[in-house]
Design brief:
Layout: E1 6-10, E2 16-18, E3 23-25, H1 27-35, E4 40-44, H2 52-66, H3 73-81, H4 84-131, H5 143-178
Parallel strand pairs: 1-4
Antiparallel strand pairs: 1-2, 2-3
Length: 179
């Protein structure tokens, strides 16, 4: 079930009143509500006329003042020159196309991140399967003494190899000094 929209009443003095939370709000607050996923409806306090579209357009316009982004100036000029119906159809087509493209790119990025994450984890899981442990499970506690014994044995073998290497080097030096 969809939650009821946040009802904002706009008064003649341009004040915006959130009738759900009983507080005055500004355009930034309305933008935050929308970013949080809340549905917002703005109405004229006297007439009840729906002003949501105008208010959301105003939020976008105010945001564009702070950041020089958005549609190119020449395109905006041409839209003003064009008839209202053509302009509205074009803007709706343009925005829908841009949003669809954005969603497609976002989905592709999420899929790729999931693939990368599984590729990173996959060698670890393969080693666990190879060693007989189920994926994602920690090594069993009884394997700890066995692991310590293996480490000790490897250290012993490394020490023996090092001794043998040193002995061989020492005997070579003795031979060179005799000659």
């Amino acid at each position: 079930m969809k939650p009821a929209p946040v009802l904002i009443k706009k008064y003649g003095n341009r004040r915006l009143y959130d009738s759900v939370n009983s507080t005055y709000v500004n355009l930034d607050d309305i933008a935050r509500f929308i970013r949080e996923g809340k549905e917002v409806k703005v109405v004229d306090a006297k007439t009840g006329q729906d002003l949501t579209r105008v208010t959301l357009t105003q939020i976008i316009t105010e945001d564009a003042k702070e950041k020089p982004t958005g549609l190119p100036l020449e395109l905006l000029r041409q839209l003003i020159v064009a008839s209202d119906e053509v302009r509205q159809e074009f803007i709706m087509w343009y925005l829908k196309s841009a949003f669809d493209t954005y969603q497609t790119v976002q989905d592709a990025v999420r899929n790729r991140l999931g693939e990368v994450q599984s590729a990173i984890l996959s060698p670890v899981d393969m080693m666990r399967k190879f060693l007989g442990a189920p994926p994602g499970s920690p090594p069993p506690a009884e394997a700890e003494p066995e692991l310590d014994a293996l480490r000790k044995r490897v250290a012993e073998l490394e020490a023996r190899v090092k001794e043998n290497t040193l002995e061989k080097q020492g005997s070579r030096r003795k031979r060179k000094t005799r000659v």
